[in-house]
Amino acid sequence: MAPSQDNPAAARNLGKGKIATAVAILGERIVAGDFAPGRPLPVEADLAQTLDVGRSVLREAIKVLASKGMVSARPRLGTMILPRSQWNLFDHDVLHWMLRPGLVEPGLLRDILVARAIIEPQAARLAAINATMSDKANIRAAFRAMAESVGDPDASVRADIQFHTSILEASHNAILHAFSPALTAILSAFFQISIQNPEIFPGNLPAHERVAREIDAEDPEAAHAAMLDVLGYTEADLTERLKL
């Protein structure tokens, strides 16, 4: 019996998995420059065959990429690749594809470092003012997880993400909190780059601890300064190794 007849939910999940895979392959290839901006994707039949998916799956994948600002379907012209200036850089997938090791553009890294320096110290400052007891406990727990995860790359990146996003949440600023998905993608990608230097993660733990301590002490300016130190440590390492 076919999966759709035997288990409709499993069939739907299988279809979603194929769409996600097609989205990832196409997204990575667009970022890598295999398909140039201003040029169309290959015709539907050829592209579906290349990806080994049905046309309906390919069409859904194209819709997802369009929602990310990467492509645009145009009558009689096909699906066109849009310029990078139109890509949604707050989208987790887009950032993940653009920050893959070996494909990272120095200009994009510099822009991200500047954006983090604008957003995260202010979030730490607001967290020192607005954090609840529960918020503070979450930040402390995230730091403990960071300290305990040294030597375990997967656990380290999870704990680091939790630390920084907990601070955004503790700011109790809706706009800053909305930055969490993008920050998650940024930190995941940054970790893949910084992991090449085994000293970077443990070396930056003291500055993270100061951030948690100053938020706990409700000292806004000290929390702001400590977060600048966290980001400065990362920037110095990336600048040295990647010649930004």
Automatic annotation (TrEMBL):
Keywords: DNA-binding, Transcription, Transcription regulation. Residues 16-84 form the HTH gntR-type domain. This is FadR family transcriptional regulator. It holds the Pfam family GntR. Gene3D superfamilies: GntR ligand-binding domain-like, Winged helix-like DNA-binding domain superfamily/Winged helix DNA-binding domain. PROSITE patterns: HTH_GNTR. GO terms for molecular function: DNA binding; DNA-binding transcription factor activity. InterPro entries: GntR_C (IPR011711), TF_FadR/GntR_C (IPR008920), Tscrpt_reg_HTH_GntR (IPR000524), WH-like_DNA-bd_sf (IPR036388), WH_DNA-bd_sf (IPR036390).
